[in-house]
Please model this.
Amino acid sequence: MANAVEIVECVPNFSEGRRPAVVEAIAASMQGVAGAALLDVSLDADHNRCVLTLVGSPDAVAEAVFRGVRTAAGLIDMERHQGGHPRVGAADVIPFIPVRGLDMSRCVDLARRVGERIARELEIPVYLYGEAAALPERRSLGAIRKGQYEALKVEIGRPERRPDFGPPRLHPTAGATIVGARKPLLAYNVDLATEEKTLADAIARKVRTSSGGLPGIMAAGIEMKERRRVQVSMNLTDTDVTPVQVAFEAVRREAEARGVEVAESEIIGLVTLEALLDAVRHYLRMPGLKAEQVLEARLLALLLEERGGGAE
Amino acid sequence: MANAVEIVECVPNFSEGRRPAVVEAIAASMQGVAGAALLDVSLDADHNRCVLTLVGSPDAVAEAVFRGVRTAAGLIDMERHQGGHPRVGAADVIPFIPVRGLDMSRCVDLARRVGERIARELEIPVYLYGEAAALPERRSLGAIRKGQYEALKVEIGRPERRPDFGPPRLHPTAGATIVGARKPLLAYNVDLATEEKTLADAIARKVRTSSGGLPGIMAAGIEMKERRRVQVSMNLTDTDVTPVQVAFEAVRREAEARGVEVAESEIIGLVTLEALLDAVRHYLRMPGLKAEQVLEARLLALLLEERGGGAE
Model:
C-alpha cells in the first residue's frame, strides 16, 4: 500500500485576457489528458493575460501544457497584443512547481523537456528560467523579458539574448516562451486588530527579506477598510525555508511587542497539503506525520495510480 | 470551479484472519468499482478477523462493500469460525463514516440502504447500529453481539433480538451482519518526556470522558520502553466535539502542571484532512481555511467528478 505518487503543478500564463473564447479554447485543449486536471482559469483584462492552474502527474501535466501552448500559438497574435503586464509571447511563462513526491530536479527536467519540445515541434524560441535556468542571469524573469516582445524581436539574434532552445528568431505570431521551475508561492495575510496602518507597515518591514527580516518573505502593510483593521500582506516564496507558521509567529511576536493582537490570518488561493502538514507537525509536535496518513491524499494517490497518469 | 464532492469511508470487519487467500478474494471482489478505492487491508490471526478500509463516493463505496459481503458469505462458514474477537457473522460489522462533503444523515441512509440490500439479496439478517440504529438499545455493538454468533443463532427469533432487516434466522454460513454509521475514530498518542508511568496514568484519568474529563476521549497511560518515556494513548471518538488540538493542549497543560514536557505526539493510521485543517485553523487563527484550497483536495475532487463516482 506504499504510494510514490508524484504530483506537479504548472501555472502557464498566456497573453490573452480579453477574449474569453480564446481562453476557453486554450483551456479545452489542455483537458482530456488522463492524470492531469485543470483546477483554475483566471483572466485579467487590464493585463490582457490569463493564468491557468494545472495539476497532476508530471508526464500528464507536461502533455497538457504542451497542447495549450500549441493552441495559444494558433489563436494569439503577438503583433497585435497590448496589455499592462510584461510579456514576450503568446504562451508567455510556464513554471513547473513540485507539489508532492518529487523534488525540484524533476521539475527542472520537466521544464527542459517541455521547452525543447515547444521549440522543436512549434518552432517557438524558448528561454529557461528559475531553477531550470541554463544561464545564471536567466534565473529571474526580468532579465529575459527586458524590453518585452517588441525589443526581443530585434535583439534575439544577439549572443546574450539567444534562446536556450529553438531558432534565434521569434515565432511570427507566438513570439517566445519562457519555461522554468520554481517553488510554490503562498499568498498569506495576517490581519491585526488595529486600524493603525503604520503598525502594519512597521511589522511588514521587520519580517520581510528585503529589509533584513526572514528569508523568502515579501510583505507590505495594507488598510482593510471594510474590516476596519490593517493587514500584513505577504508572499511566501520558499516555505521550505520560512513556513507559514514561522511567518505567522513572526508577525504575532512583532504585533504583541507593539501591544497589538493578531485578529486572524488567511491563505489566498491554493496551498499544498505539505505546507499545512508542516504547520500541524510544528504545533502538535508531531514530526512523524506523513501525507500518506491523510485519507484524502491516499485516495488521490490510488486514483492517480489506477489511471496510470501517463500522457495519452 | 465549486466542488461538492462527497467522500465516505467504510471499514468492514470480516470474520477471517487466518486464510490470506479468503481475505484476498474479499478484497478483490471490492475492487473495480469506479469511484471507490481500497486503502488498506489488515489481518489479525488471533482475532481471526480482518479489517478493510474503503473510501470514495457514497454509491461506489456502498456497491463495493456489498460485493465484499457477498463474497464473504460464500467463503466464510461461521459454523467453523473461532477467534478472540466477538462476532455474529462472516461480514460482522460495516460502519459508514462521513469524511467530506456529507453529513451523518447521509451515512445513516447509506447504512440502511446497504443493510436492506444485504438482507434482501443475500438473505442475511441485518442489525443497524451506531447513528443508524433504529432502536436506541442497538446504538452500541455490545448489545447486538451479546452471546455472539452461537447465542444469536438460538435467540434471533425472540422479539428483542429480531433483526432490522431480513429473516429472523441466521444465514446458514454467513450468520448475521451489523451495519451502521459513526464518526471517524482518531488514534492519537502524546509522549511525555518522563519514564514515570504514574504521571501518564494520572493525566489519562484527568482528560478522559469516563473519569470526568473531556467528551469523546478514551485514554490510558502506557510505558514505551524502547523510547524510554511514557505515553498518554488516546482514542478520540468525536473530533467535532474534542478535536485533536484540544486533546493535545489538555495533555500538555496537565503535563506542565506536573513539571513534565510533552516530547511529541503521533496519529496512528489514517486521519481526515478536515481534522488537520481544524488544527491549522486554530493555531494560525485562520477560520476561513477551506478544504477546497488544498491543491491535492481539489485534484481529488476533479478526479472523482470525472469518474462519475457511481456504481457500475
